[in-house]
């Protein structure tokens, strides 16, 4: 059986909080007593006494029940990743009371900050079947793919705007004299 070994010693100069405490995996060579095990240390870079108390060990977990089938998704304009995980017959397209389909997102504005310092964003949303857009909090939107596409387009637009700006020399005018270039 393969096990992890807990070693609470940390090299000098390293933060204990960030150190790896579980080392291995090691193979149990022999059970000596109820609470004592000999580990197979040969062939590893560890230099430690091979006889260990069992509370310092935990088993290595292999997860054979986890699916190993890769998820294959066709390319689409908008895609919610959660949709691919659902079976075909489980999709319920009916909306609950107070829920509406989003047609598109037109604008974004930043509101006040939360008590944790995060900015609250509001989006100008066009709804299917309605003419007038409304401002909606980010937390109230349930259209992850549309929101992701909008934010990606905005970031791309900001990058283009930042690259297209060129630095021009500043001009200074003195009263009555023509403008001169300041270097």
From TrEMBL:
Region (Disordered): 163-183
Gene3D superfamilies, A to Z: 2.40.50.40
Protein name as it appears in the record: Unnamed protein product
SUPFAM superfamilies membership: Chromo domain-like (SSF54160)
Domain Chromo residues, every copy: 100-162
Organism lineage string: Eukaryota, Sar, Stramenopiles, Oomycota, Peronosporomycetes
